[in-house]
Amino acid sequence: MTAGTPAMTARDWALLLILAALWGGTFFFIAVVVHDLPTLTIVAARVSLAAAALGLFAWAVGLRLPRDAATWRDFVVLGVLNNALPFALNVWSQAHLASGLAAVFNATTPLFTVLVAHALTHDERLSGAKIVGVLIGLAGVAVLIGTDVLQDLGVAVVAQLALLGAALSYAFGIVYARRVRHLAPTMIGLGQLCASTAMMVPVALALDRPWQLPLPDGTVIASVVCLAVFSTALAYVIYFRLLTTAGATNASLVTFLNPVSAILLGSLVLGERLAPHHFAGMALIFAGLMAIDGRLIRVLRRATV
Q: Cα(227)–Cα(37) distance, rounded to whole angstroms?
């Protein structure tokens, strides 16, 4: 394992795979609804429905939210970093980009996480392998964006930069969540969802006026519900459990797997196609993530001994 990063158990890996399927579906569900509902309304519906679902679960198992001001301050920060800001950036970006491409950009989260964790923690420091991985991954980002950024700052380029901003926000959220890892994973997810609901619902009501919008069809409504219940509420329970047992850098490796399910769904159901340079960029990002993780390097070393 790379320096300072906990080893993952078989259970951790199983949870990582389940989480990847749930979060990979996020990009598909957003693609279904993004052209029928405004960005802020989608985000507000996602966080409020997820908070309700997770709240019912917490009540059923006898968990209660803490009441102290310090914990709720942390929930507000997490609500911004993990929900309000990145959710809005991701939804807006997917109005202009394919869902699979959005998932690939989301896979840069671990690259930012190792940098943020190095700067803000004492036990998840940069190692040589992590530095190499970050440099390879950033090269992949450059290939992903391509030469468009050199020509003009069109909407597609801005959308890609917004996705990078969302990934950076997630990275800060991953590391900041260490402050509340003494709480039950369900409580962490519920607390930040309640905080982001309190922020996003009034904003969406004021700016989008959703009551004036045409009633969406059943497919859109079902996609919003799935986005909230499965890709948010259930996913957060699993995610914060991973964060507690496997560490910030390992937990962020879920974004290594997200693009696989997102690209498959986008291709098979939505008919999306990515350009060759998108796959080249994804390959470089994955190579960077494998260098950060260190497992493939150790396997290759053992094979040559």
A: 14
